[in-house]
Fold each of these.
Amino acid sequence: MKKLVVFFIALTVFTGLHAQNSIVLQPNKAQTVINKNIYGHFSEHLGTCIYGGIYVGTDSKIPNIDGYRTDVVNALKEMKIPVLRWPGGCFADTYHWKDGIGPKENRPSIVNVHWGGVTEDNSFGTHEFLNFCELIGTEPYLSINVGSGTVQEAAEWVEYVSSSNESPMTELRKKNGREDPWDVKFWGIGNETWGCGGDMRPEYYADVYRHFAGYVRGNNLQKIAVGPSSSDYNWTEKMMIGLQDKKQLVQALSLHHYTLPTNSWVGSKGSSTDFGEDMYFATLKNTLVIEEFIEKHLAIMDKYDPEKKISLAVDEWGTWYDPLPGTNPGFLQQQNTLRDALVAGTNLNIFNNHADRISMGNIAQVINVLQSVILTKEDKMVLTPTYYVFKMYNVHQDAKLVPLSLVCNDYEFKGDKVPAVNASSSIKDGVLSITLCNLNPNKTETVECSLDAKEYKVVGGKIINAKNLADYNDYGQAEKVNMQDFTVAKPKNGKLSIELPAHSVVLVQLQ
Ligand code: AHR
């Protein structure tokens, strides 16, 4: 079979067939399960992500369930959100969880020093977050304060949340109205400890991690250590060396990579809505590079962990543009266009294709901040193009990854190029799903698929596209970018042929 695949690829390359793009799928070799948590999200006390976005309080005129926006609850359930990280981000390392429990009128206010210097009244705390997760059917992922917190504070939080022992912490939880523990598996020990979480060196943080992790106790907890930013391979290497003899304390290393069109944290990052093909092309390049980062970090991890016990959790990713004009710059509010849908689809295809080592992904942030799936303004809500990508791709959650080889045209721009098409595929309950992105904004790309059209019939198809790359959905207006039925997949010469319109994200399902 392997020889056949190589022959097919060679044939397509040498006969020039690749000008139409070709994809070889091996459903009979599907083994690795795509962890549904790759489709996770991130909620932070930043701008209007929590207050206004998720939580409006029980006295609000906005329809709500125990203070949580009804429209948001329904939209997130519909999208299928498997895991949600909280409370930050940089915010997490200023957060003292005991400020956010007990009667709201007794909770102290703090200043949100990282995000706009606004007052945080702590009315949304541990109970409010964990109950929200139960309401929308998602697994919580809590981020422990390492930067300004103590080991005791961390140990008590775990006890308060997850223990069924009799102890001062569980008594306190019961006094605050929650008899049974919540089921919290995922615990992040610090956030960006190389930056806003303490400006540490990896050698030092590895020891701090060991110290905290030893006191974060419970059954089957998944502890996640702060990993690198983008291409910081030194951080990964030093962390793996520092944890080598204590691997049982760490189940995953995180990776953060944001897509900045300008590729620079200094100066303007570019507008989220007003961009030309140059900025679009740069955005794609700075997205696609994550595959190289992932592979290089994994190679370093494998050197120190050949049994591959420690996985990679991409627990912050997404686009980062200039804040919308007229908004608080500390709130990181941006629009979300068709360009963002292509970024999301591409990242998720890459994560799926590395599902043997990637255990989680958390796009930043779920509502009203950076590459959000939902935007809200007072009582109004819009679903962004990125929302529809997560909805389309949810077929991959916990499905088996189908090995795939893709030979495709380049999308060329001003002497530079990126692969025009990217894809991933999975199989679940006998249905084979292929998700594809055509990044070329100027040309339809037709992909010939190796599967025999007599053996596989098209049973479903969806597409996300719009007239313009910069199209987005706005409050009170008809959606310009959403998910539609897709039918341009048909048999050709006995094989399946898929026509991908310019700048589109497509799902094809076969049985
Ligand atoms: O997502 C915004 C910020 O980006 C997060 O708080 C932080 O972890 C990262 O630097």
Amino acid sequence: MTTLNDFNFDNKKALIRVDFNVPLNDNFEVTDATRIISAKPTIIKVLEDGGSCILMSHLGRPKGVQDEFSLKHIVDKIEDVLGVEVKFASDCVGEEAEEKANALQPGEILLLENLRFHDEEKQGDKAFAEQLSKLGDIYVNDAFGTAHRAHASTTIVAEFFQDQKCFGSLLAKEIESIKKVMEDGEKPVLAILGGAKVSSKITIIENILDKVDHLIIGGGMTFTFIKAQGGNIGDSICEDDKMELALDIMKQAEAKGVKIHLPVDVIAADAFSNDANTQICDVDKIPHSWQGLDAGPQSIENFDTTVNQCKTILWNGPLGVFELESFSKGTIELGNSIADSTKNGAFSLVGGGDSVAAVKQFGFENKVSYVSTGGGAMLESLEGKTLPGIAAILG
Ligand code: AMP
């Protein structure tokens, strides 16, 4: 894997695809600079080598040129984070961008305007990618969040750099973390899959059965499995058309020697609301018109035991409706278990969608080994797909 450390950027211009798709408030101020902070190590390495950086990113989903999606709004924030002045080109290709890139001196940074102001970006247009490629000597991809897209700046542009291309340190860290879980994780390996629906996780489950020793299934997905086994799930969320699939997964797991752990009890509620009446009941004996919205105390204890037995842990998806305080306990306790296990030497990766939000909300971010920065990209990696942005650097 070619990374930043394989290059000396002295007197070189690095064309870096970053993910600066940051949230802005109504005054166009950055409300969460995590993505900018995450790109800092890559940018600083290039500058410290004596090179310059041309940064390119998308922001939001503009339709053509729309001022509200201009990257000019985030120039100040980037300067704050990096402590370096940032020049700005009001178009990512064309004369102004080329002139400003040409004039760039070692130690300087140029930010290009939103790539998605051009439809050619998402179309993966070759001529557009070639125009971008003219701006730098070495292409660096540090945007995991868009690595699953074959866009001009994430994938196609790499064709124009032959061997002058590499992964930035953030993207390298993402790839290593996934590899640590999916390929060379210390055993026993555990995957925890929660969230709402079996249908959105099925490809992950099927791929992961070959890689793990234990699989915890939690959240809304639970009830499709429980009903398929003949349990009473009351009004709990369920995908009836996936019940056969659920039974098939159980069979496959048994054949592969993977132990599946489902909740044994739940917090059931008489409404989908924070102040609903609740009761603890067996997962397969939920009364009529009640619904399971969180893992129960015995399940939490069982999961804690499993988590603490394992040396490699992947977590994707909450154990309950964590957005409502009354049903957040299972997810919080699972976070605590993973944090403990990590402290005792396990490697833990949290990735894909709502579990990342939960980990941030409940303060576990620094208590797990790695929190992925890419939602869709992470899910596709777990499904076993080779991401085009990664393949473009490797190829
Ligand atoms: P996903 O995006 O598939 O990871 O699903 C996350 C969503 O699943 C969150 O918004 C949770 O509120 C929801 N969820 C988790 N457990 C349950 C449950 N028992 N019933 C309904 N929704 C749930």
